[in-house]
Amino acid sequence: MELVADVRAELGEGPVWDERLSRLYFVDILGHTVHWIDGRDGRLSSLDVGGMVSALALKDDQHILIALGKEIQQLNVETGERTPVTSLKTDLEQIRFNDGKCDARGRWWIGTMDMTESQPIASLYMLSNSGPLRLSLGDVTISNGLAWSPDHQEMYYIDTPRRCVQTFEFYLEEGRLGPLKSSFEIPPAFGIPDGMTADSEGNIWIAHWDGGRVSKWHPGSGALLDVATVPATHVTSCTFGGPGHRDLYITTARVGLTDAERADQPGAGGVFRHRTDVPGLPSHRFLG
What we know:
Elements: E1 2-5, E2 12-18, E3 23-28, E4 33-38, E5 44-48, E6 53-58, E7 63-68, E8 71-76, E9 82-87, E10 95-102, E11 108-114, E12 122-127, E13 134-140, E14 143-148, E15 154-159, E16 164-171, E17 176-185, E18 192-198, E19 204-209, E20 213-217, E21 224-229, E22 235-241, E23 247-252, H1 259-264, E24 271-275
Antiparallel strand pairs: 1-24, 2-3, 3-4, 4-5, 6-7, 7-8, 8-9, 10-11, 11-12, 12-13, 14-15, 15-16, 16-17, 18-19, 19-20, 20-21, 22-23, 23-24
């Protein structure tokens, strides 16, 4: 487990690997910052976007999409210029965007959360180049980890307070969810399930808030296959990248840690890298 970016983010999240540029993007939600690491020389770049930025999607070599509060914007990473794309149609003050990920057809699946973390008033949406945000799933409290099977026929999903992974049938060409197929619970001792990614063998890797680990599971049986210990309690998300997609990049947070805990976890808030035997699946770009 190697610390590759000692940024000390208050709430590091949303890692996405840009294979074309050998670049890892991630955000600090409470720090209002988009960061990226050059995978060739380790150089860190950052942009302050002036608000709670929770997720991003690759677009082209110069632009990404960002979820900023209740808005989705296009960000020029070279100039910092931001352009509105769409926004949530809600009067609920406690709702904001949270985690998101693009599917293999370039649609961005982006969820919301109740910032009181107590009510199922959030949702999962889908954004494509053919229209506005489309509601895909309701009765959610904290929409978090998303991943797909290698054949794109299943979508794995985490609504964090449920403390489980749900598997839905997925219709790639239509861009919609089918019925719930299965679900398995995460043991309380593992911490709270947060972000998630998938590998080329169809297994899922889950980051655990208050768990200090990333765990590997078989999504059908719920069997635990592996655990990677992280030297930070608040582990938030993970994605595969690097040569052959064998590097698991892991984001963490400092928020909520006491002064003593921060002293004991000097890398908390940083990005860690864990080498895996099985390659992961690539990140997809937003096609819009």
